[in-house]
Amino acid sequence: MHIRDAIAGAASAQRKNLREMTTVSEKIDAKQVKALREMTGAPMGDCLKALQETKGDKEAAIIVLRKRGMASAQKKAARVTNEGAVGSYIHAGGKIAVLLELDCESDFVARTPDFQELLKDVAMHIAASDPRYIKPEDVTAEDLEREKEIYRAQAAATGKPAPVIEKIVDGKMAKFYEEVCLLEQPFIKDQAISVKELIAQKVGKLGENITVRRFARFKVGAPDWTVAQTKPVEAAAESPSPLVIEIAVSGDEDSPTREP
Question: Up-side HSE of residue 135: CA atoms within 13 Å toward CB?
Fold first, then answer.
């Protein structure tokens, strides 16, 4: 008797959920789906499902799509990216220039408008935000230790105990990565997402792993330029230390711009 009641209850709940989903689906029209696709770049089917799950709440649907994009990107992160394209961005009357290699799995995807748009957007972001590394794992041991020592000294000056000092240092290091690592930086055209999340959205849409292989940023009159490179998937196990170079050249001191 109890088993029959349980089965009947489960069936009733399933019918109720189905009715609710049908009602929500009827309320969501093509314009809503199209608007969400234009905002996120996600496939139409994914946009519809996200709107159905969130009962038509656009902002909540965007969060759902972002989470799915990151999950999709993580699943594909181990795939080798031996294809791609090199793009450039020149800004401020020829005063700032960026060369960027963005990799994917196939030449077909590399030639799509979505991939080319991503290539341009990331190159423009580098020109505006002046990152020094591609990801946190690329930061050199020397730079890492130097920053930690600075933050420890600052925290120690407040008289706080050692365990608290280390927590403060960890928090400041997270901010440091956000400032100097390309993938951790807020995207210049949409501060609500990071560059890593921007790329993850394209991974979810295009169905291939996408990685930033290397970039170079130049500014007229600056005393140095940045060349950052990270190892491809197949070489990461052999050599975990990526190449990150900052080369000093003659020129007047000038701080990097943050304006695109």
Answer: 13
The rounded distance, in Å, linking the Cα atoms of 187 and 200 is 13
Question: Residues 191-209: what's their mean pLDDT?
Answer: 91
Tell me the C-alpha distance between 106 and 233, whole Å.
15
Angle at 186 between CA 96 and CA 145, to 5 degrees: 85
In the CATH scheme, what is the homologous superfamily, with its name and number, of domain 83-139+181-248? Elongation factor Ts, dimerisation domain (3.30.479.20)
Residue 55, phi-psi category: left (phi > 0), alpha (psi -120 to 50), beta (remainder): left
Amino acid (one-letter) located at 175:
K
Q: Does the model's pTM come out above 0.85?
A: no
Taking CA atoms, 91 is separated from 11, 88, 95, 96, 166, in Å, by 62, 10, 6, 5, 41
Q: pLDDT per residue over 213-227, tens digit each?
A: 999 999 999 888 888
